[in-house]
Specification:
The protein has 1075 residues and is α/β, with parallel strands linked by helices. It is 37% helix and 20% strand. Strands 30, 31, 32, 33, 34, 35, 37 and 38 form an eight-stranded antiparallel beta sheet that branches. It has a seven-stranded antiparallel beta sheet with strand order 14-13-10-11-12-17-18, with helices on both faces.
Amino acid sequence: MPRRNDIHKVLIIGSGPIIIGQACEFDYSGTQACKALRKLGYEIVLVNSNPATIMTDPETADVTYIEPLNVERLEQIIAKERPDALLPNLGGQSGLNLCAELHKAGILEKYSVKVIGVQVDAIERGEDRIEFKKTMNKLGIEMARSEVAYSVEEALSIADKLGYPVVLRPAYTMGGAGGGLVYNRDELKVVCARGLQASLVGQVLVEESILGWEELELEVVRDADNNIITVCFIENIDPLGVHTGDSFCSAPMLTISEECQKKLQEQAYRIVESVQVIGGTNVQFAHDPVTDRIIVIEINPRTSRSSALASKATGFPIALVSSMLAAGLTLKDIPCGKYGTLDKYKPDGDYVVIKFARWAFEKFKGVEDKLGTQMRAVGEVMSIGKTYKEAFQKAIRSLETGRYGLGHAKDFDTLSKEELLRRLDTPSSERHFLMYEALRKGATVEEIFEITKVKTYFIEQMKELVEEEEAILQQKGKMLPDEMLVTAKKDGFSDKYLSQLLEIPEADIRNRRIALGVEEAWEGVHVSGTENSAYYYSTYNAPDKNPVNEEKQKIMILGGGPNRIGQGIEFDYCCVHAAMALKKLGFETIIVNCNPETVSTDYDTSDKLYFEPLTLEDVLSIYNKEKPLGVIAQFGGQTPLNLASELEQNGVRILGTSPSVIDLAEDRDQFRAMMEKLEIPMPESGMATTVEEAIAIASGIGYPVMVRPSYVLGGRGMEVVYDDESMTEYMNAAVGVTPDRPILIDRFLNHALECEADAISDGSHAFVPAVMEHIELAGIHSGDSACIIPSVHIPPESVETIKEYTRKIAEEMHVKGLMNMQYAIENGKVFVLEANPRASRTVPLVSKVCNIRMVPLATDIITSELTGRPSPITGLKEQVIPNYGVKEAVFPFNMFPEVDPILGPEMRSTGEVLGLSRSYGEAFFKAQEAVQSRLPLEGTVLISVNKKDKDEVVGVARSLANDGFQIVATEGTYNLITAAGVPATKAKKLYEGRPNVGDMITNGDFDLIINSPVGKDSIHDDSYLRKAAIKAKAPYITTVAAAKVTAEGIHYLKTHKGSEVKSLQELHGEIHDKG
């Protein structure tokens, strides 16, 4: 069947900001869809609120809208653009839900927009728990016994019938939000109330527990002629009870019989045929190994996290193919070098793929490290090897958690067998590391199986690794005998881990194995639907099948590894742009990365992709094989930077800013000396390795001070300390502090406006496109602060000073490429906080708001020593940017209900959105709307702030009262604002009796909550206010600085009509040169 000619313009909905459960895999699927459909000749309109993605670049679609994802905004866009069709199944759960809402509101019908790919009723059959059950009953496919509840009482009586434990699953949510496993009536009451609230339709499914069964997934693709293929069989190694997003998985299935796989496939085909999805669908099953019962858990009629994994594991680009199928092609129409046409595809790779999740528990104080039916992971890695052992150990070293093997994590090797087994009772992010030590302490495979229900095959494989490691430890202090070394390498032991076990240098191990001829070999994974494209993985268990191109000059880009808080999709964005720019400059590009969710690991982003961990061993092996002219390390965040100097010592040429400059920026003493030479002010600071030193430095500077370890990204372990007692606590808790890795102590700038500038520098000249102003004051991590670009409240002379300082520093440090500078302005004086001579997380933001291609410009500079091209810097002109962008961060606090949702110097956001408008007030309003925290234009506001913020809150209260809001305040705040003549009502705090503000928040009495935390100086904890606000889904603000901008945004929209929606391309058309 040829492509459809009844449609010309297609609307694609993206998935919005990155949150737990919905990450960069949708940037990958959306970007692929744009590629596929534009190639077929359609015009693409894309809507997404996330600025950090490749898909929201003005080149990816024909027309791009960075707007909040809700029905009102989409109607404005549909009315303006008049698309013929909507493709909803590439934007995750957000895209599906929006399509269903647009259909219900009659908007699709009003503007005659057809839905392609997945029909609206199919979304309902897949998502609505009751509809899905009806469909399964018709097909005679078994599901877990369950009933739907619309109230807690109903849920209780259903649970009594099914018997505890039961699982609660709210309808229309993802990442298992709001659900959970409950063992008794009390737990059910709490979780069910939360679930009813989380569900779009107030519906919760109560189902029998199938804990401990095998969880198995199939990724299937269907076309309009009902040709169906299975792209991938995925086995979750963690049994049911752990969300698939947190589960450790393998593909292909390693312990499931052929016969069982056939049954699963047959059921999956019947399901997708009846639901009639066109494109990819993920079907999840549970299989009881004891009774052989198979039940279907759920389907996702869309591309999902699993489909990104399945695509990268098999080389079958599901999103690309799904888009072509949605446009009317069939699998028979798509040629493939390996299978002829895609309808003949089979998953027949002769390798093992492992996925392992990456968590961020250390970022959230008070959160128990516990895995359940609600997803907790913030990212994942994928590794490919010839054997399970090789792939498993490779996955561990891909995670970048400082572990290069499975043993000796934390203090686990000092615990007794009994204690280790006790800790295995509850699944946690450390479970597999605990299992390893338990086996070392003599636990049997049976004992561990009984507790964890992980299949015995996997435990036996692990036991063999433990036994091998114990034999290696016998050789401590000397080189391993040759055959032991060969076997260790084949079983996936990394050079670095062997050097840690044997206590000898890593280089000795590398040199010895190379002398023995034991080197990494590579095999290709064929990309389906292409003539002969492939990407490569390394193994020590096969001969080399990696053809190397000698004709073109090559450059290697190091990627960012797994997504995590502090290092997210923004760095992937930079790597992808670098690859595109290098191709234009005529180089062959090589990318090394191990994150299956991203665009950088798409086969055609680079000329050659190595799906490998970012460690010295793996990168050096590729470098020696490919012999590129150089390596670019400044685009992948902290990951490649941590490798840069070791690579350089091993003869690798690092292009752009040299690693020694990067070290200089990290070394406080050297950096301070340079600032003094340039006469640029910095806050007073010092470095300490002991409690005594720290207290002496703090008393010299004066409290409050900011403390943090050196060499971190995302502000790990940063805190503001107010007295000697807290300082002692911090120093005693700080781990891994050594004389060469001291704790940094800085004067904390109080009430200072924080701002940052991104620059492009060629070593002698630097260009700053715009200065960003943070809405939150200094002391809140820049990744968590909302920010306005170009700046609004910074006086013009300070903006000039910032640009001048940035240029001076870039020139003094000879930065070649990108650089990010952080400043604070206290009483009109500009202080430098830090310099980061690399790409930062604001690069995509600046690029989109200012319409400047930062990464291609930087890439041009970095390679100029090879190309001899002149520097582009001199041709860049200052621009007038008439539209403001407001970036707002998105936090996972709803997934961690036990955490106090306040902001501080440690980064905790998972993603971001962008609001764009001529007025920064409206831009801020749109950014809040995009993070699902829409500001009210009328109603009641609760104000309760701490002593420090009392002076500034009066103006906020007056502005809101003048705009017609009722104001409720707690005692101290109430006295202050009424004294200033602002009318308000008084409310009780938690310990002052009832009804109190906690009750009022829970009852939904407030449309907006402004509450700055009381902090250490109060005997009463006020975190209940903010936790209650999250539960009640009320917009809440925890800093006075943000409250001021909120009041301005509300005031602007009360006095002006909201502006029309404009595409990014139109906004860029309004930018012009200065003067």
